[in-house]
């Protein structure tokens, strides 16, 4: 059970520096991200009601973002016009793992997808993260239902 100082909510611009710090744990390549440099992207994101960042924030530790995921709701012509929710960048700070934080953050995202008439939630995960895959399966995600293909078209 999460500590009482953990607040679950949508993340805002004020959370950006802490969110970017957490993203380093997701991928070391994120270590060069800065809040100032990312602000134009955040401003663009904040204008789109179909993109949301869900988070667990430790209020006793300077409002540190300790677990997160983001979703994009994509309008869809199939499935009787019901949208698709794409969920990505799930990460929990190493010091806060095994407390149910990611479970709650993903549940918040899934509830939002249901409230927005999505018929499915798609979650991608690095093929090497087999422990995470078991966790996602425990949350009801099926890793055998579809196969995702990724093409990197612009590396930095």
H/E element order: EHHEEEHEH
Low-confidence stretches: none
User: Whole-Å distance between the termini?
Assistant: 39 Å
Taking the sheet with the most strands, its summary is: 5 strands, mixed
Description:
Helices cover 30% and strands 26% of the residues. By secondary structure, the chain is an alpha+beta fold. Strand 2 (51-58) and strand 3 form a beta hairpin.
Care to give the gist of this entry?
By secondary structure, the chain is of the alpha+beta class.
Q: Topology, pairings included?
A:
Blueprint: E1 6-10, H1 16-26, H2 35-46, E2 51-58, E3 64-74, E4 83-92, H3 101-115, E5 118-123, H4 130-138
Parallel strand pairs: 4-5
Antiparallel strand pairs: 1-2, 2-3, 3-4
Name a few traits of the molecule.
26% strand; 4 helices; 156 residues; five-stranded mixed beta sheet; single chain; 30% helix
């Amino acid at each position: 059970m999460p500590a009482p100082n953990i607040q679950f909510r949508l993340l805002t611009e004020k959370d950006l520096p802490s969110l970017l710090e957490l993203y380093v744990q997701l991928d070391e390549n994120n270590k060069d991200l800065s809040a100032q440099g990312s602000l134009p992207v955040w401003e663009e994101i904040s204008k789109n009601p179909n993109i949301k960042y869900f988070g667990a924030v430790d209020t006793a530790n300077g409002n540190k973002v300790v677990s997160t995921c983001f979703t994009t709701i994509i309008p869809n012509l199939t499935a009787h016009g019901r949208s698709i929710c794409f969920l990505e960048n799930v990460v929990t700070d190493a010091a806060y793992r095994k407390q149910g934080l990611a479970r709650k953050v993903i549940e918040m995202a899934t509830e939002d997808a249901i409230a927005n008439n999505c018929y499915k939630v798609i979650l991608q995960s690095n093929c090497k993260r087999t422990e995470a895959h078991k966790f996602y399966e425990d949350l009801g995600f099926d890793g055998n239902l579809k196969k995702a293909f990724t093409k990197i078209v612009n590396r930095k």
